[in-house]
């Protein structure tokens, strides 16, 4: 069973940047896709980025495309989410997750293991 630990959340002003990190334990990290979801109070969990096993393919929804960048370092078992031009509506708990397969999945059901989440708050 993989364990995922997120870090890097915090409070930032509108227009600012944050970089989230996720460290994965266990072997076979490079065999699976990874993703970042977020969940704001009273809302469902929303995918904000996913990446395939090699890092060659990524997916972003329209809401964050051009502002967020996902990347991974398979040698270090790490996945990152660079968030630029942050807006108040980006405020949420952000979760790192691992997919069932190796492609850049886009559905909640395509992911299993989850981290504990890290809070991102964007002030206006």
Rg from Cα: 13 Å
Relative strand content = over 45%
Largest sheet data = 7 strands, mixed
What distance separates the N and C termini? 40 Å
SSE string, helix = H, strand = E? EEEEEEEEEEE
Q: pLDDT below 50 for ≥5 consecutive residues: which ranges? A: none
Count of separate DSSP helical elements: 0
How would you classify the helix and strand content by structural class?
A: mainly beta
Instruction: Kindly state the number of beta strands.
Output: 11
- Mean pLDDT reading: 95
Topology:
Elements: E1 4-7, E2 10-13, E3 18-24, E4 34-39, E5 46-51, E6 58-59, E7 68-73, E8 78-83, E9 92-99, E10 111-114, E11 118-123
Descriptive notes:
The chain is mostly beta strands and about 120 residues long. The strands form 2 sheets. Strands 2, 4, 5, 6, 9, 10 and 11 form a 7-stranded mixed β-sheet that branches. Strands 1-3-8-7 form a 4-stranded antiparallel β-sheet, with no helix packed on it. It has no helices and 11 strands.
Task: Give a quick rundown of the structure.
It is built from no helices and eleven strands. The chain has strands at residues 4-7, 10-13, 18-24, 34-39, 46-51, 58-59, 68-73, 78-83, 92-99, 111-114, 118-123.
Fill in the keyword field for this structure.
0% helix; single chain; 124 residues; seven-stranded mixed sheet
């Amino acid at each position: 069973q993989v364990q995922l630990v997120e870090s890097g959340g915090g409070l930032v002003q509108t227009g600012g940047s944050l970089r989230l990190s996720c460290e994965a334990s266990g072997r076979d990290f490079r065999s699976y896709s990874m993703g970042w979801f977020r969940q704001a109070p009273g809302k469902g969990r929303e995918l904000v980025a996913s990446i395939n096993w090699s890092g060659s393919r990524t997916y972003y929804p329209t809401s964050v495309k051009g502002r967020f960048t996902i990347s991974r370092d398979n040698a270090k078992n790490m996945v990152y989410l660079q968030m630029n031009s942050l807006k108040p509506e980006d405020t949420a708990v952000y979760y790192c997750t691992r997919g069932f397969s190796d492609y850049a999945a886009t559905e909640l059901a395509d992911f299993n293991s989850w981290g504990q989440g890290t809070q991102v708050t964007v002030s206006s």
